[in-house]
Amino acid sequence: MLFGPTCFVYICGLFTVSASPELYDWDVLLLSDDKSDLVQKVSPDHCMELLNEDMQYIVTVAWEQFKKEFNKTYADNQEHDKRFKLFCQRFMAVREHNKAYREGKVTFEKGINPFSDQTIEEISLSCCGIPSHNLTTLPGLKYRKLDVELPEHVDWREVGAVTSVRSQGTCGSCWAFSVTGAIEGQDFLHSNILKRLSPQQLIDCATPYGTKGCWGGHPPDAYNYVKEAGGMELDSDYPYVAQGQTCRFDKNKVATRIFGFVEIPDNEQILQQAVALYGPIAVAIDALHLSWVDYKKGIISDPACKNTRRDMNHAILLIGYGTDENGTPYWLIKNSQDTWWGEQGYGRMLRNANNMCGIASYANYPII
């Protein structure tokens, strides 16, 4: 069996291989001419044995590429076998979903990424940092809806209010990145200078205010800490290390301050107005679904997503909204899973669809 060749030519349903040190194109590996039915066909334990010989070969080549591209190593053969079975199931599910995407049955495309050999339960430990069992009730100022006309399109990246995408790694620090992004946006709108602030400071120092470092936290608690501590340092002065450590906040290095935060009601129209008028918003969603984990491009829509505040488990940054070429309204969001996720680290979610994944259920922004 050949591992490492990379040029596939799709002819009559078969792959021909040429020796090359480069990687295969995932779009080619995931290509299928069959019609989709969006039915889960295989379980991890029986994935390979239910595939024909050609498909087994494709999955095996994809597995070798996956390990190489994402630097995957495993403790022993048993762990390797377990991860391969999970990958096989996920790979086939992504192929099936993407057939439906090409047929216009779903609004987004999936892809292979570093999570493709993990269960959703394992993913939740690193991706999701909003503890749903103890939601913060710390009061903020209440948002007051205004009677104004809104633009059809908002993208705060276009005016320079959004820093580049970062990776939270295996630390459940999404809440810190969401809050940091919201403060960065407000600071830019007041100073016209974009500063890359320190989520690590929040992880290390906000625990007396109710956060739990890499084990999760809530934006209101983080805002309260920043207000009482006297501000935030730059990321260059307090760099991210993806784990908790002793707080070493230095007031002499404060780059910006806040004076509180605003709570936005659980309403998509009000959320649209807030992000249009006041800048990037910290929001939380129900992200424990493969529609989110495997997302590559398009507009995320998943009827299995929950939309109440108690179901929120992942914090992100809302940076705008718009409508695509098909007339589908979307929210524009920034994630903290590096640029391999979604559209270079950003994503779009269906807007005005019964509060898809709860995006309007737990929204807030800082006051500077």
Structural overview:
- This protein is an alpha+beta fold and 368 residues long.
- The protein folds into two domains: 7-118, no CATH class; 124-367, Cathepsin B, Chain A (Alpha-Beta Complex), CATH 3.90.70.
- The protein is built from nine helices and 14 strands.
- The chain has helices spanning 26-29, 53-69, 77-102, 120-127, 174-191, 199-205, 219-229, 268-278, 290-293, and strands at 7-11, 14-18, 108-110, 141-142, 154-155, 232-233, 254-256, 260-264, 281-285, 295-300, 314-323, 329-334, 346-350, 363-367.
- Strands 3, 5, 9, 10, 11, 12 and 13 form a seven-stranded mixed β-sheet that branches. A three-stranded mixed β-sheet has the order 4-8-14, sandwiched between helices.
- Helix 2 (53-69) crosses helix 3 (77-102).
- Keywords: Disulfide bond, Hydrolase, Protease, Signal, Thiol protease, Zymogen.
- InterPro entries: Papain-like_cys_pep_sf (IPR038765), Pept_cys_AS (IPR000169), Pept_his_AS (IPR025660), Peptidase_C1A (IPR013128), Peptidase_C1A_C (IPR000668), Peptidase_C1A_papain-like (IPR039417), Prot_inhib_I29 (IPR013201).
- One of its GO terms (molecular function) is cysteine-type peptidase activity.
